[in-house]
Design brief:
The chain has 310 residues and is of the alpha/beta class. The protein contains ten helices and nine strands. The structure holds iron/sulfur cluster.
Length: 310
């Protein structure tokens, strides 16, 4: 593949959405109020060192509101911008399968029963999934689009330990094994540039991810955000961090794309923490679409495309 239908040198997410739904689709973020096993003491405390859940929770989504109310408010907000579109209920904050299984099923049922919702996107940890839940999601997938996204973050156990994920890469591999071939759209979330990882380590993530049965991938560059353990570590030992400039990141990501299995849909290339929470790196307010344009340009300049160097 050199160019896809959208004139991109990689499988871009908006082409996928157009092909899948043939109309505009908006995700509505929801908060279930669940926690994480590395926060509540069952596996660890404190959560992941980089995590400040406020960085991805919009105002309308608060766990004290019902799923239906959060959906209604989200849809009211977005329908002012676009009159006709359908919605995916996005279980985004914290670990959205980490609760009593009957409660989890009840909340997912509530979301899909909303008349404007055509599917679910569920973000979770690889160690918080079980055969019962996979079977339930698989049955929902007969009528709805069901995307299950695991936070992979790194393929290196040393890194996972250092950032207090409290799960191994093998648990990630096992979670995908359990979830594959069940009618689910399987996503992966990766953080690029975690402390201690070299460029070779990062490029090797692309090779290892390509061996997993994933449909789509979200890449996030490491951002140090306020009120996190990592912010404290960064202040004390900045030499342990090698944060990328936007130019360095684009150079690395274009090489990463060239190593990635060609059918994987790339949903994101960067993170976008709110400005008031961001400590580093400072990319002078470069927006997502500007970074994407630079990545597109550099892929052409380097004559690379997704999968070229596999
Ligand atoms: S990154 Fe995810 S798993 Fe880690 S503490 Fe935050 S919400 Fe929990």
């Amino acid at each position: 593949m050199k160019f896809n239908n959208n004139n991109k040198r990689y499988n871009d997410y908006s082409s996928f959405i157009k092909e899948q739904f043939s109309e505009r689709v908006q995700k509505i973020s929801l908060d279930t109020g669940f926690t994480c096993p590395n926060r509540d003491g069952s596996k660890g405390i404190g959560g992941c060192t980089y995590c400040n859940n406020n960085t991805f929770n919009p105002n309308y989504c608060k766990p004290e509101k019902s799923i239906t109310q959060q959906l209604d408010e989200g849809i009211t907000f977005f329908s002012k911008k676009y009159k006709t579109q359908r919605y995916l209920a996005y279980f985004q904050a914290y670990t959205n399968t980490y609760a009593d299984i009957n409660l989890v099923k009840q909340l997912y049922n509530e979301a899909v029963n909303h008349p404007k919702v055509i599917g679910l996107v569920i973000g979770t940890r690889p160690d918080c999934i079980n055969p019962d839940l996979i079977d339930f999601l698989s049955s929902l997938s007969k009528e709805y689009f069901i995307s299950l996204e695991f936070g992979v973050e790194s393929t290196l156990d040393k890194t996972l330990k250092d950032v207090n994920r409290c799960h191994s890469f093998q648990e990630t591999v096992d979670a995908y094994e359990l979830a594959k071939n069940k009618g689910l759209h399987l996503g992966a979330h990766m953080i690029i540039g975690l402390p201690g990882e070299t460029k070779d380590d990062i490029l090797n993530h692309a090779t290892k991810l390509s061996k997993l049965p994933i449909n789509s991938l979200k890449l996030h560059h490491l951002q140090i955000v306020k009120h996190t353990m990592m912010a404290h570590q960064f202040k004390k030992t900045p030499e342990k961090f090698s944060l990328y400039s936007a130019e360095e990141y684009i150079d690395l990501i274009t090489d990463f794309v060239a190593l990635l299995r060609p059918d994987i849909i790339i949903e994101r290339f960067i993170s976008e923490s709110p400005k008031h929470l961001l400590i580093a790196p400072n990319w002078n307010g470069l927006k997502n679409f500007e970074i994407v344009a630079k990545i597109d340009k550099q892929l052409i300049e380097k004559n690379l495309w997704q999968g070229k160097n596999r």
